[in-house]
Amino acid sequence: MTGSRLLEIQAHDRGITCLLPLNADIMVSSSVDRKIKMWDLSTGECSNVMAEHTASVTCLAKLNRSQFVSGGNDENIYIWENNGELIRTIIRHEGDSNMNALLVVANKTIITASDSTSIIAYNADTGDIIGKENHHRESVTCLEKINETTFVSGSLDGTIALWEITDRLHIKESLSYPPRYFSESSKKFNHSVQKIVVTGSKYIAVCIANGFKLFDLDTGESVVNCPSAHRSIVHNILTLYNGKKIVTCGLDAKIKIWGSSNPNVSFSAPTSNSSKSGSKRKKVFIAEPHGDMWIHTNQVKHLLKITETMFVSAGSDGQIVIWKDGMYESVNRNEDARMFMEKENQIYRKYQNQTFFDTNSESFETAYSNFPRFDDTSDDTSNSFDIDQVYVSEYDSSGDIIEGHYLLDEANYLLNEQGKSKQEIREKFRIDGHATEVVDDILENLTEQGLYI
Question: Which residue, 88, 206, 233, 411, is most buried by CB atoms nearer than 10 A?
């Protein structure tokens, strides 16, 4: 079992590339199907479809409170009102080179990265280029905003660069610049950067090849280095519990939670006024594995933090999964119930004191039931929506999923009810499109149960 399915809708014809919440009511999604769709978060219904792009839409970013930007693998950048109205088209300087990342700084400047080695800055009002730099040696894969004038970029060659844009675009510092970055034997980039995330005012988390690092922006030093976090490429990373834990996801379809046995360690940036003057003192923390969560059947590429104990994952299997800390949610529900009962008692006593008839009479019960109540703020997820399929799953504080992967049930059925062999089950799951890593884990689990020798 994977949790309770809340709602299932068909949102895009092909894979999802980006999710962008515009406000508390509206979320925007983009896809390889060349479309941008707007979603009403209260109903899960699609409120608008934008089809201006002529190729895959790969990037979405907020321009300001009322507008957002989209980019993809065609020749244009589009600026939209939050209601879906197109207000401006910017012609890309790099043509139809695949766009890998897009962000907005200082409300007026759009930064793009593509399969080229260039970082390009555009004026959002005029579309003019205000800066172009080529510090990277291979395709620039990701961008992340630090503040209104500073951002960081990463590329296939493992370069991580800190940039500043004022009246011009210029590089401040290289956090990583590996001299050898490509393996001729394996034909792979050894230090490829997939994702950069700001975890606070001081640290950035970077997905590098099969692992991740945390960098201190004050010193430029790596404070966490976990080179083999997953069995294959790590796609995304975020922090939970106010920086006490790290969540990663990857090509192996796994979601993993990391933490530290030291309760004083935080993987987020503490507020600090420290400067880079003086000696650099390197502090290295250890990220320890706290649990695996596997529900997706193909690579997991997107993580979206909702609260400190809740996040969303989306993968190539077309699923969006909402994850909640089961123990934390149980405590919250109990507290909500306690507050509800306390409020009900207050209402009962208040109304009882305002009436002159017998409180045990039918008249009193009728009047009490009609007395105005406060709005119920209980955790109702029945209106949550999904791009293809939505599930809600709970995990315990260690990160382990409470209920097992649903493919285990199917594998057990194929084995015990239909007498299928391990190879036949493997082939069926492969044809169904499930990730090799997931299938291997399923069959390994059956072996550990003694069902396969």
Answer: 206
CA distance 264 to 373: 43
Summarize pLDDT for 319-356 with one digit per residue, the tens.
Answer: 778 788 766 655 555 566 666 666 666 655 555 554 44
The pTM of the whole model exceeds 0.85: no
**Share above pLDDT 70 across residues of the chain, in percent, rounded to a whole number:** 72
301, two tokens: 């590429």
Q: Which residues pair with 11 in a beta bridge?
A: none
The residues, ordered by sequence, that sit 6+ positions from 259 with a Cβ below 8 Å of its Cβ are: 244, 245, 246, 287, 288, 290
User: Is residue 3 a contact partner of residue 394, using CB atoms and an 8 Å limit?
Assistant: yes
Residue 198 bridge partners (DSSP): 204
Positions in the chain whose pLDDT score sits under 70: 1-13, 95-96, 107, 269-283, 318, 326-407, 433, 435, 437, 445-453
> 3-state DSSP call for residue 337?
helix
What's the longest Cα–Cα distance across the chain?
90
Distance of CA 337 to the CA centre of its chain: 31
Could you say which DSSP state residue 265 is in?
A: -
DSSP string, 129-155: EEEEE---SS-EEEEEE-SSSEEEEEE
pLDDT one-digit tens code per residue, 283-326: 678 899 988 887 888 888 888 888 888 888 887 776 778 788 76
CA distance 95 to 141: 17
Bridging pattern class, strands 109-114 and 182-183: unpaired
